[in-house]
Each structure stands twice: as structure tokens, then as C-alpha cells.
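Quick sanity check, Flagellar P-ring protein:
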Amino acid sequence: MKAVFATAIKWTGMAVAILLLSLPAQAARIKDIVNIEGVRENQLVGYGLVVGLNGTGDGLNNAPFTRQSLVAMLERMGVNTRGTNMRTANVAAVMVTANLPAFSTQGSRLDVSVSALGDSKSLQGGTLLVTPLMGADGEVYAIAQGPIAINGFQTEGDGATIVSGVPTTGRISDGALIEREVDFDLGARRAVRLALRNPDFTTARRIALAINNLIGMPTAVPLDNATVNLTLPRGFNGNIVDLITDIEQLVITPDLPAKIVIDENSGIVVMGREVRVSTVAIAQSNLTVTITEDPQVDQPNSLANGQTVVVPRTEIQVDQVDSQLATLNESVTLQELVDGLNALGISPRDLISILQAIKAAGALQAEIEVI
């Protein structure tokens, strides 16, 4: 009998890092980097029942909310089932979600997502019954109903079960009918705010300058690093929608902050184009510790009155490779920084530690964000 347990603790090559080198800042349209005040989706949610399942629904004994909903629905249909022992497995309680697009009109349709709430095994072949979808204000904005399409499946036998994807979630294309509109008259407004998706003072000012140069008068004013106020100028031939249409195709160059994003769980490091490093010397060593367990079984002689015991045997090996001291010159670029660190043979985990150490030394002109 022999069992070998090997545990390796390595500070080199623990994960594959994705190091993205930002290209020079590219120009972008205003419509691609800002959101318009009031032009937004609204989230809807509802609770309903899915019927027609092939024995893969909720167990009514384990899901009392499914039983209560089924009894209440049948009572509305004129069928009294209170006090009876229902054993159907073809019904499942679900949560239905959808996003109500901006300016959606009454009578139009939208897609809905359906997710099992109880212990249903699959929603395949099921049909969602009429389900009101409510907004955050408690009002019903849409009604959902229809057959569910799922991407996964589940097949089981007496001794094995195969599950592909997630069979307890599905989607109904155009499955909801909008019953109530969100009142918002954008065309009647005299001013709107443009919200930057990536807040930055320089970008906000460039947006305002581009708009004012097009209109020929101070129409846009940057309020902060995330907001630009847009006012309909006097004598403009159109409303605020026409003005937005004219300015959203303007092209500007967004400014990028000096920032490094680190994901320590996966070893991913993303560095921005503006990252700079002052003169600093770096030394790094690779340490590998390998622990091998090789227990031996000691059996007594067949004629001896003894016991069989397991004798532990542990082997520990430590390998350390020292690298040379390297120097990064004043205000090196991102490419030079990466080339210098790669020359040291640095792994993703070591790169994270080195960047944090350079920041602690005050030699890194960038913000580090750990996610």
C-alpha cells in the first residue's frame, strides 16, 4: 500500500496574467461615452407559475408557496381544491424579470427571463401563466405569458444524471405586453445633463468645448467630472432631441487616468497608458517549496503478535533562485516598465507584489485598485 501526496507552493507561474497595454487614446463619439438624463431602462419583476412540465416541477410538500399559488389560481378559475392532497409535479413557481426600455409605448412587447424559485429540476416544455410585472413603485407595467425556451437540459436514469447548462432558467422572446408607459417628455425639456460613463474632468471639458464650437455659443457647461449640462440655445431650429442628435456624433478624445487594476484571485494585472515610474531599483527572487508525503506501511511478522502501523515519511525541498538587481530609469513608459519586469523573469504574482512595493516607495505615479 502506497500513497503519495504532493503539495507544491510556488511563487512563480501560479497563474497566467493578462497584461493589457493600453494603446494611444482613441477618439470616440459623444454618444458612446455619455448617458442622457432620463433615457434609461426600468427594471420589472413578477412572481408566477409555470405549468406543463414533464414531472420536473416543484415538490408541493417542499415548496408551500407553490401549493398556495396553485390553490389560489384554481379558486379564481372556480375550482375548489382546499383540503385535498395534490401530488402534481408539473407546476413550478418562478420569478420573472424584464427591463422596460426607455420611451416604450403601451402595446409593444419585450423579452422576459424566467427563473425557478423552488426545487424544480427543469423548466423545459413549460408555459408561463399570466404574470404581472411590477416596477420599483409597485405599479404593474407589463403582463408576461408564453412558452419558455431554455438552453440547458437534464437527463437522469437509475444510476446517473446528466445536466447540461442551467435547465431551471429560461427566456420568452417578446413574452411581455406593456400595459403602462413611463411618463417622460424629453422633447419638452429646455436642458438635460450628459453623464459620463467614465468620469474625468478633462473629458468633460473636451465634450463641452466640442459642443460649444459646433453651436457657436456657450450651450454646454461641465458641472463636475461626471456631468455636462446641455441647454437648448435661443433661436435653435428644433427641440432638445434635435440638439442631442446634432451633438452625439461629435468625436472627441477621452482622457485616461494613470491607473493599475489588480485581481489577486486570478493574477490579472491591467495597466493604463499613462502609468509612470520614477527611478527605482528592483530585486526579486523565486522561491519554490515542494512537500512530498510518502507514508510507509510497517507490517509485523506473520508469527509475531504485533499491529500494522503507517510510518509517515515527509520530504521537503526548497529551491531558491536569486535574480540580479535591476534599475528602472526616471519616468519610464508603460512598455519600458513591462520590458524591465519581464527581463527579471517575474511571474504574475510577483508582478502584483512589486507594483504594490513600488507604490509604497512613492515611485509609482498611478492609482492601484485591487478587485
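Posting the structure with no commentary besides this: The longest strand covers residues 42-51.
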